[in-house]
C-alpha cells in the first residue's frame, strides 16, 4: 500500500522542519502552492535530501508551450509526482508530458477539484453533465495524453479504475477520518472508504497537520488506509 501523502500546507521552511521533526521515518509529502511560492525549489531539494518522496502540486494550467517549458524546469527537481489541470486540454497535457521527457517524475491531472460540488460545477463552469461524468471524461483525456493518472475524489475512483485500468493512478484528496471537520472540501471520504473504492494514493492535509499529535494521527490514518483495522 502506498503511504498516505501528507499535504505540507505550511507557509515557511521553519514550519516544515518543525513538522517533519516529529517523524522518524521517510514520508511521502506534498508541496503545494502556499509553500512553493514562499520557499521555492530550494525547499524541495531540502525535503528530498531528508529522504522523503515528494508530490509537487503546482496544478499547471496555461498554454501548451508555457506548460512544456515549465515542466522542463520541474523535471530537474527529481520529484516523484507533479500535476496539471486537465481543463487545460489534451494538447496542454501532451505538452506537459513532453516537458518531463527523460525524467522519472510521474504526471497526473486534476479533474474536478474535491472542493467542487455538482451544483457548483454547473453554476461556475456551465458544465451540465453529472460530476462523475465530467471527472471520467477528464480521466480519459489524461490517459489519452499519456499521463500516469489523475487527482479525483474517492467517489469517482472506482469508475476511473474500470475505465482507465488499475495501473492508472487515482490520487484522492478530500480524506477525512469520520471524526474530523470537512472544512472547505465537498467530496470527502474516510481512508477506509478510499481503500475500498480503489484509490491508489490518499492525500491528507489538515487531519494530520492540525491534529493535536500529528504523528499519532498519521499512524491511525495509515492503519485505516492499509486495512489494519
Ligand atoms: O491536487 C491536489 O492535491 C488537490 C486536488 C483536489 O482536487 N483537492 C485537494 O484538496 N487537493 C489538495 O489536497 C490537499 C487537501 O488538504 P486537506 O483538505 O487539508 O486534507 C490540499 O493541499 C489541496 O491543495
TrEMBL record:
Tree of life domain: Bacteria
Pfam families the record matches: OMPdecase
Keywords in alphabetical order: Decarboxylase, Lyase, Pyrimidine biosynthesis
Active site (catalytic residues): 57, 59, 62
Reactions performed catalytically: orotidine 5'-phosphate + H(+) = UMP + CO2
UniProt domain Orotidine 5'-phosphate decarboxylase: residue ranges: 3-221
A GO BP annotation: 'de novo' UMP biosynthetic process
Residues annotated as transmembrane: none
GO cellular component: cytosol
EC number: 4.1.1.23
GO terms of molecular function: orotidine-5'-phosphate decarboxylase activity
Protein family according to the UniProt entry: Belongs to the OMP decarboxylase family. Type 1 subfamily.
Protein name: Orotidine 5'-phosphate decarboxylase
Gene: pyrF
Amino acid at each position: 500500500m502506498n503511504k498516505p501523502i501528507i499535504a505540507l500546507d505550511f507557509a515557511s521552511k521553519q514550519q516544515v522542519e518543525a513538522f517533519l521533526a516529529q517523524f522518524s521515518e521517510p514520508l511521502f509529502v506534498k508541496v503545494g502552492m502556499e509553500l512553493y511560492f514562499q520557499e521555492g525549489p530550494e525547499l524541495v531539494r531540502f525535503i528530498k535530501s531528508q529522504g522523503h518522496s515528494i508530490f509537487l502540486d503546482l496544478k499547471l494550467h496555461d498554454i501548451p508551450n508555457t506548460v512544456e517549458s515549465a515542466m522542463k524546469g520541474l523535471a530537474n527537481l527529481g520529484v516523484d509526482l507533479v500535476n496539471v489541470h486537465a481543463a487545460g486540454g489534451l494538447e496542454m497535457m501532451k505538452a506537459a508530458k513532453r516537458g518531463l521527457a527523460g525524467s522519472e517524475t510521474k504526471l497526473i491531472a486534476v479533474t474536478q477539484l474535491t472542493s467542487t460540488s455538482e451544483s457548483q460545477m454547473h453554476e461556475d463552469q456551465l458544465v451540465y453533465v453529472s460530476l462523475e461524468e465530467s471527472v471520467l471524461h477528464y480521466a480519459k483525456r489524461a490517459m489519452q495524453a499519456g499521463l500516469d493518472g489523475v487527482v479525483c475524489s474517492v467517489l469517482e475512483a472506482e469508475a476511473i479504475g474500470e475505465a482507465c485500468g488499475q495501473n492508472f493512478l487515482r490520487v484522492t484528496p478530500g480524506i477525512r477520518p469520520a471524526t474530523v471537520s470537512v472544512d472547505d472540501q465537498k467530496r470527502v471520504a474516510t481512508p477506509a472508504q478510499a481503500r475500498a473504492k480503489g484509490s491508489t494514493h490518499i492525500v491528507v492535509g489538515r487531519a494530520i497537520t492540525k491534529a493535536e499529535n500529528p504523528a499519532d494521527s498519521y499512524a491511525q490514518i495509515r492503519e485505516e488506509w492499509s486495512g489494519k483495522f
